[in-house]
Design brief:
Layout lengths: L3 E7 L1 H4 L6 H12 L3 E8 L3 H14 L2 E5 L10 H9 L3 E3 L1 H17 L7 H4 L1 E3 L3 E3 L8 E4 L2 E4 L3 H11 L8 E7 L7 H10 L3 E7 L2 E8 L2 H11 L5 E2 L3
Parallel strand pairs: 1-2, 1-3, 3-8
Antiparallel strand pairs: 4-5, 6-7, 7-8, 9-11, 9-12, 10-11
Helix pairs in contact: 3-4
Length: 239
């Protein structure tokens, strides 16, 4: 069975269009590289009920769920509590988190003495959570069951994800081909792939070129589909 993933991006600023959701695109690309089949990306506001409902649902339907955003001690940073409630876990003081938060806050106050941060609140994490260090920010990430909770600031999100990415592995194989042929002229070829091979196929415009993407659970099926496609005129492996 394929390893599937869902990405949950949390933040009113994403829904308002004030901030581009680069985290979801970056994570989807990385997960795909690890052979994980990303099946859903959702964006929810900084409100506990939709976060809880979304995490509760997706954690039961996918192998892993990754959330980004809403970590910290400001009023809109409610992800930790919402995830805990979604999974039925109590919040409790975490000494590892507190040590990290105190060190980060102390470093910031060296340059900004008036910096305020609620260390007590920021140090409460779900019981039994595995803490993921955040070497470039204040709030660590954590793993609760199959839910990975990451910061929303892109540099922090990437730094925290890279702490755990080596433990992520799936069985999905994907390949990308390229063509200059107009998309409407590819219908017969693309349908032929679907009929002959157990793969998913999509065609996406990229400037003057079209990207043909093949995804499947069996590497041999994907490679056979690629070999069949590149026999057709103007379809190639490289740009």
């Amino acid at each position: 069975m394929a390893t599937t993933a869902a990405i949950v991006s949390i933040g009113d600023e994403l829904l308002a269009g004030d901030v581009e959701n680069t985290n979801a695109s970056w994570l989807a690309s990385r997960l795909t590289e690890f052979g994980i089949d990303v099946r859903e990306i959702r964006v929810v506001p900084d409100e506990a009920p939709p976060i809880e409902a979304t995490v509760s649902e997706l954690s039961q339907t996918h192998t892993i769920v990754i959330t980004t955003g809403g970590l910290g001690s400001t009023p809109d940073d409610i992800t930790i509590e919402a995830v805990a409630d979604a999974l039925g876990l109590p919040l409790e003081p975490n000494s590892e988190v507190r040590e990290h938060v105190e060190a980060a806050v102390t470093e910031i106050r060296d340059d900004h003495p008036d910096f305020q941060h609620d260390i007590e609140t920021a140090s409460r994490y779900p019981a039994s959570a595995e803490i993921i260090p955040n070497d470039v920010g204040i709030a660590p990430g954590c793993i609760c069951g199959n839910v990975y909770v990451l910061p929303g600031i892109p540099a922090e999100m990437k730094a925290v994800f890279e702490q755990v990415e080596n433990g992520l592995e799936g069985s999905i194989t994907s390949r990308t081909l390229y063509t200059e042929t107009p998309e409407s002229h590819l219908n017969t070829v693309l349908s032929g792939v679907s009929e002959r091979f157990d793969v998913r196929i999509g065609c996406y415009p990229t400037g003057e070129l079209k990207r043909i993407r093949l995804v499947g659970e069996e590497e041999s099926a994907v490679e056979d589909a690629v070999a069949w496609l590149v026999r057709h005129p103007n379809i190639r492996r490289d740009v």
